[in-house]
Design a protein that fits this description.
heterodimer, A: alpha+beta, four-stranded antiparallel sheet, 2 helices, 9 strands, elongated, B: mainly alpha, 3 domains, 5 strands
Amino acid sequence: MSLSRIAPIGLAFALLCAFQAHAQEVELRIETVLAMNSPVDAPGLIKGFEGTFNPDLQKQLTNAFPYESYQLLERVSRKGQLGKREDFSLPGGRFLQIAPREYTNHRIALQIMLMEGSAPSPFMNAALSLPNNGTVFYGGRRYQGGILIIRIGATVKE
Amino acid sequence: MAMCPHAERLIPLLHDGELPSLLRREMHSHLVSCLPCTRALSLLERGQELVSQVIDEEIEGIDFSTFWQGIEDKLRESRPSWPMRFRLWVERWHLTQPLYAPAWAVAAVLLLTVGILLQQRSTTAITQSPTFPPEGIATQSSPDARSAQPALVSEHPSNRNDPEDGVAFVSNQAQIESLSSSDTVAVWNDPGNNSTVIWIGSDMSEETP
């Protein structure tokens, strides 16, 4: 095959590859907090906030929830791509699956699934959208005498 | 008048100087004694003189005073326009690099695909959201329900577009398209944080904040 045949196809493929490389990257942030109302009963917990909380997370927890103490169990940040599912493990043998679906109108559409059990089955499945760099809270599952609160954040670089 | 056989074949060659030296000497010896050949050679010479005379007269009539000036003017003429140069380049390229229709067709399809994808992306980026995300308290608690579609009701108008803020209000609330759970679900928007909380618990009375 001569160069004149390969050149246009190669050029087009190069453009396609460049387009794929430019595909929007999504940063997913998962912060798992254990909230308790009886810190004296939980060894290792102190009243208030334990762990390196972001100021905004601390403020949001204080405003949104009435618990007496909060312990940051885990903070995970991961970069993914639109259409690609990311799995996160949560305390208590739970799993969180997040699939950023699309980015439109400066909002990130997410498919979020929470699973638990030895043979993990979904107990919550939600399709929602967040503003870019926005967050949503999930809570309510019991763990070590407290309640798990999970803050999910997503950011797309524009 | 009797014709000499030499006059027909050799005299023109002698006139043009194309005879070998030996034959040329023989012809000159022959011309001394052959009247027809002498006449034939004279006619040829006379014809050539007439042609040369006519050409010289024509040349003398031509004005060469502006000849070099014309060449310099042509050299100084501006280069061809860009469309003309492009056309010349394409024609030259066609001659050296023949087009292969299938290859260019594939390239065109791929480029068209890229263009459509880019167009879709730019369209979605430019278009503004027609509605603000819902805000307010969560309402739905559906024990034993396999699917809960929370209806969100505004509780606090919040400080959207508050001139004292000095910055545009950016809502952090989630827009929920669908929500299903095997447990009781409560959804509310916290006005303090302007964020959405999804609460999943089997015993809402004890666990829900």
